[in-house]
Design brief:
The complex is a heterodimer of chains A (about 450) and B (about 270). By secondary structure, chain A is α/β, with parallel strands linked by helices. Chain A folds into two domains: about 5-285, Alpha-Beta Barrel (TIM Barrel); about 310-410, no CATH class. Chain A contains 18 helices and ten strands. Chain A has helices spanning about 5-10, 85-100, 115-130, 150-160, 170-175, 185-205, 230-245, 275-290, 295, 310-315, 330-335, 340-350, 360-365, 370, 390-395, 400-410, 415-420, 430-435; strands at about 45, 50-55, 55-60, 105-110, 140, 160-165, 220-225, 250-255, 325, 375. In chain A, the strands form three sheets. Chain A has a six-stranded parallel beta sheet with strand order 3-4-5-6-7-8. A two-stranded antiparallel sheet of chain A has the order 1-2. A two-stranded parallel sheet of chain A has the order 9-10. Chain B has a five-stranded mixed beta sheet with strand order 4-5-6-7-8, covered by helices on one side. Chain B has a three-stranded parallel beta sheet with strand order 2-1-3, with no helix packed on it. In chain B, helix 5 runs parallel beside helix 6. Chain B is an alpha/beta fold and about 270 residues long. Chain B has helices at about 15-25, 55-65, 70-80, 85-100, 110-135, 155-165, 205-220, 225-235; strands at about 5-10, 30-35, 45-50, 135-140, 140-145, 170-175, 180-185, 185-190. Chain B folds into two domains: about 5-125, no CATH class; about 135-265, no CATH class. The chains are: A alpha/beta (about 450), B alpha/beta (about 270). At the A-B interface, helix 1, strand 1, strand 2, helix 2 and helix 12 of A face helix 5, strand 4, helix 6, helix 7 and helix 8 of B. The structure holds iron/sulfur cluster. Iron/sulfur cluster (SF4) binds next to loops of chain A. Chain A: One of its GO terms (molecular function) is metal ion binding. Chain A: This is DNA modification/repair radical SAM protein. Chain A: It comes from Caproicibacter fermentans. Chain A: Keywords: Iron, Iron-sulfur, Metal-binding, S-adenosyl-L-methionine.
């Protein structure tokens, strides 16, 4: 089998993992070496599906001893199999990297023979890159659940980022669809990586030359729509992972049926892309806007509103905090205004030190006035002639796509019920905590 | 005090600083500040501003002192942008800066500041995109790339690629501005280059390109096909120089997309800094 066939098979087998970022470390190449990394991450191209391609994302092999029901590589699925040798893959990575095709390597693998053996093959690939080529580019390695702790540690010293995929947002779904995996086998390496990172931080303070362990942190991925788990559950789980496991990113992947199985959505079912999009928006609110999961969803409202994004939804349900005065409102509150993003807030805080801002100024600062105008005043005044009815606000908040969706459903007589905005009953976290506790 | 005079300078950053000097000395604000090859005809008298290293140095030294080091870096970058009439915008910005001091960098809602900030944002964005979209080819062990940026990004790309490939020899040719970044361990230079013809790719290079195109095709999840999203992240004007979009025989490169027109694309020299 030639390199082209292998590359095709092992790319195909890896592409359903959505993480492809190269962020989190800054590094220049060592003399005599090749490769650097930038903390903000760099996209090298965008696939026709619109996703950023930053890393060469392949599997070491798609031969797998396990039989996860949702996976193209499962043992019982008829599909061509291939396997890179460590040398082959390291050379391919360098060939791509020199031409600036990629930022580095994202290496994952099916479970070949057993987890330890698989892990060894991955380590050998990374060793060639780091030691022989003195490669300083980005490496993301998937931890293979069930592999020995010492191997995970070795992998973590060679890689910049590691991930263990949660895959399914509840234990029941997991035991049903991934019979060879358990929540413990997933959370164990995750905890080990977390502890390794913490330990490394204190070691680095004490001994300057300690090798860095997973400097870009760890991430995970969950499938959306393969199982009946709600957004509420998923978001709470994500929040728990950020807080308890110190994850850098949680990725959500709209499930696209790739195998026929009575337990899963039928082949040809469209992936729930809007839902995935809403989860990413909410995830953003958790990480950068100071929201908590309980503010965005609750047991009575377990799924996101398809028409309005989570931030607008929150604002509409909390009209009592608006309008706020742009020239005085604190940062935390400005972040909650629809139409003002993190950059916008930063610019407002800077600009208002030297001038009192009006609506024209806000436009220059990159604020989306069409949305923000309902929620702010400038020098105590609203935009003249602004209609503050619920309907006019709602229309202004919807993008044209959402507006189409809304009016179509309105014709069907469904929307009013969907649009009953909710207020807050107390959140219930036990479920997630139970799931998270090892 | 706004005059109807036009300043004609030599096209260099130092030359522009001399225009700032002139504007203060004469207590006037020029109607336009034009490089030598700008053929615009305006109904105003022109004055040639000769570059004077001493004046330029005085202005250059006063910027970090009076307006702050951040502003000094900012105007240098502003000079690399493709903002039409950037020279006069920079002059106005500096005049405002001398009056306001370092706080001028925070006056984001001020029109003079805003225009320049937007232009520099675009420059920074284009630089960032090209760190990813730029494609090297290998010829006899050396690397070469061609780009077609709107802004003069080479001085900003230089530190990135030099830190990335310290042991390589490489060349990045900017087709639009007629300049090239050349690097060999451990020296960098940006030189004017009117025409760079790259040799035919050899067997190894052709294989690398073919592997990359295969990877690019395979990595899409067809069920999520979304060309509009791709275009919004990766504007089509960059595609011309990217290996994955060179669909000609054996991945031959595409011809230049834009014809260089001398006037707007002249090369601003503040290299070596
Ligand atoms: S372990 Fe499960 S998810 Fe991973 S490759 Fe094997 S079958 Fe697929």
């Amino acid at each position: 089998m030639d390199l082209f066939d292998k590359l095709k098979i092992l790319t195909d087998a890896a592409k359903y993992d959505v993480a492809c970022t190269s962020s989190g470390v800054d590094r220049s190449a060592a003399r005599g070496g090749i490769g650097s990394a930038e903390a903000c991450g760099i996209c090298h191209t965008f696939a026709p599906d619109g996703r950023c391609v930053s890393l060469l994302k392949v599997l070491m092999t798609n031969r797998c001893a396990y039989d996860c029901r949702y996976c193209v590589n499962r043992r019982s699925h008829q599909t061509p199999r291939a396997e890179f040798t460590p040398r082959e893959l390291a050379d391919l990575t360098i060939g791509f990297y020199r031409r600036n095709y990629i930022e580095g390597l994202f290496l994952s693998s099916g479970v070949l023979k057993n987890p330890d053996y698989t892990c060894d093959r991955m380590i050998e690939t990374l060793r060639i890159l780091r030691e022989e080529y003195r490669f300083g580019g980005y490496i993301h390695a998937k931890a293979i659940p069930g592999a020995d702790r010492s191997l995970i540690e070795r992998l973590g010293v060679l890689a910049d980022r590691m991930s263990v995929n949660i895959e399914l947002p509840s234990r029941q779904s997991l035991s049903l669809l991934a019979p060879d995996k358990s929540k413990a086998s997933i959370l164990k390496p995750m905890g080990e990586i977390r502890d390794g990172i913490r330990q490394n931080k204190t070691d680095l303070v004490r001994y300057r030359h300690t090798p860095r362990f997973v400097p870009a942190g760890q991430s995970t991925q969950m499938m959306i729509g393969a199982t009946p788990d709600t957004d509420y559950r998923i978001l709470n789980l994500a929040q728990g992972l950020y807080r308890n496991y110190g994850l850098k990113r949680v990725f959500y992947s709209a499930y696209l049926p790739v195998v026929e199985n009575s337990l899963l959505p039928a082949l040809g079912t469209r992936p729930p892309l809007l839902r995935e999009h809403r989860l990413y928006q909410a995830d953003w609110l958790l990480r950068f806007y100071g929201f908590s999961a309980e503010e965005l969803l609750d047991p009575e409202h377990q799924n996101f509103n398809p028409y309005v994004d989570p931030k607008c939804n929150w604002a509409l349900n909390h009209m009592e905090v608006f309008p706020m005065e742009v020239n005085r409102a604190p940062k935390e509150l400005l972040l909650r205004v629809p139409g003002i993003g993190v950059t916008g807030v930063k610019r407002i805080l800077t600009a208002r030190r030297t001038a009192s801002l009006d609506f024209e100024d806000l436009k220059k600062l990159g604020v989306v006035l069409k949305r923000a105008q309902y929620f702010v005043t400038c020098r105590g005044k609203s935009v003249p002639g602004l209609k503050l009815t619920r309907d006019s606000i709602l229309r202004a908040l919807l993008s044209s796509k959402e507006l189409n969706l809304y009016s179509r459903d309105l014709d069907w007589g469904e929307a009013p019920q969907q649009l009953s905005f909710f207020g807050g009953a107390g959140p219930e976290r036990e479920e997630v905590q139970r799931w998270l506790a090892i | 005090m706004a005059g109807n005079i036009i300043y004609r300078y030599d096209g260099s950053f130092e030359g522009l600083l001399c225009c700032v000097f002139e504007s203060y000395e004469r207590k006037e604000i020029p109607f336009a500040v034009l490089p030598p090859d700008d053929g615009q005809t305006m109904l105003a008298p022109e004055r040639e501003i000769a570059a004077d290293p001493e004046k330029a140095a005085r202005v250059a030294a006063s910027i970090p002192k009076k307006i702050g080091p951040e502003a000094a870096g900012f105007v240098k970058r502003a000079f690399l942008t493709c903002l039409p009439g950037k020279e006069r915008h920079i002059l106005l910005f500096l005049r405002l800066g001398y009056r306001q001091g370092p706080q001028v960098m925070g006056m984001l809602a001020n029109d003079t500041v805003h225009v320049l900030f937007q232009a520099v944002n675009f420059l920074d964005r284009e630089t960032h995109l090209l760190k990813g979209f730029l494609r090297f080819s290998e010829f006899d062990g050396a690397l070469a790339a061609e780009i077609e940026p709107k802004n003069f990004v080479l001085p900003l790309l230089a530190p990135h690629f030099c830190a990335r490939y310290p042991e390589e020899r490489f060349l990045i040719y900017d087709r639009n501005h007629g300049a090239a970044l050349v690097y060999r361990p451990y020296q960098t230079a940006i030189i004017p280059a009117d025409r760079v013809e790259l040799p035919e790719p050899d067997e190894r290079e052709r294989e690398a390109r073919a592997l990359w195109r295969l990877y690019y095709k395979t990595v899409e999840v067809e069920g999520r096909h979304n060309p509009a999203c791709r275009r919004s992240h990766m504007p089509m004007r960059y595609w011309n120089c990217m290996t994955e979009f060179c669909e000609r025989k054996e991945g031959q490169k595409n011809p230049p997309r834009t014809n260089r027109s001398g006037d707007q694309n002249q090369l601003p020299f503040i290299c070596g800094s």
